[in-house]
């Protein structure tokens, strides 16, 4: 009778599969998540608030979920599956700090301050959400055209919007555009 490998072995195998295809560096470290949550066997740590230079304790991005404050008070934490993310926006205010707002398809919303690295945090969350949707067989953009050419067009449109909104620099835009156009 075959025995089931221990959780660590299953996590290591899942990590090896995901590491080469996930759009950002991931770590197999089993981190403490907000509200006592635990990483699933096939879920890995992408970034924490500390990695972005932020002091928000409940901000954690994994390969499957975003844990973040549900509002600027930071009193409650929202665990949002990345496949549910509809929009990630960096809102710059004339006075004070910028705010990152993450909206879900079901109307839930998370918002938290981004004193520094707002563009990076926004693009990391958006990239992880897009990957999660694609790997789940979902279309990252609700109204995307079908087929490889349509997908490429939608990706180009999306990165252009990110550049226009200030999330991507011109150099980042050009690099991402070249990567998209090289795809078959």
Give structural notes:
This protein is an alpha+beta fold and 184 residues long. The chain folds into two domains: 7-140, Roll (PH-domain like), CATH 2.30.29.30; 141-184, no CATH class. The chain has helices spanning 7-19, 49-52, 118-135, 147-164, 170-182, and strands at residues 45-48, 60-62, 65-69, 77-81, 85-91, 98-104, 109-114. The strands form two sheets. The chain has a four-stranded antiparallel beta sheet with strand order 1-2-3-4. Residues 142-147 have low confidence and may be disordered.
Order of strands side by side in the largest beta sheet? 1-2-3-4
Beta-strand content: 15-25%
Q: What is the CATH architecture assignment of the largest domain?
A: Roll
CATH topology of the largest domain: PH-domain like
Summed up:
This protein has 184 residues and is α+β, with helices and mostly antiparallel strands. The chain is built from five helices and seven strands. The chain starts with 6 loop residues before the first helix and ends with a helix.
């Amino acid at each position: 009778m075959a025995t089931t490998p221990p959780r660590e072995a299953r996590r290591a195998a899942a990590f090896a599969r995901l590491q080469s295809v996930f759009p950002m560096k991931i770590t197999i470290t089993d981190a403490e998540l907000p509200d006592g949550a635990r990483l699933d066997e096939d879920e890995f740590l992408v970034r924490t608030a500390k990695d972005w230079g932020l002091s928000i304790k409940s901000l954690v991005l994994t390969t499957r979920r975003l844990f973040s404050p549900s509002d600027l008070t930071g009193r409650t934490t929202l665990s949002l599956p990345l496949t549910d993310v509809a929009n990630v926006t960096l809102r710059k205010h004339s006075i004070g700090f910028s705010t990152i707002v993450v909206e879900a398809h079901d109307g839930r919303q998370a918002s938290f301050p981004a004193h520094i690295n707002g563009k990076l945090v926004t693009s990391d969350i958006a990239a992880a959400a897009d990957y999660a949707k694609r790997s789940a067989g979902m279309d990252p953009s609700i109204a995307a055209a079908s087929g490889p050419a349509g997908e490429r067009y939608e990706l180009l449109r999306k990165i252009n919007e990110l550049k226009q909104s200030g999330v991507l620099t011109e150099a980042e835009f050009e690099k991402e555009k070249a990567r998209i156009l090289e795809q078959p």
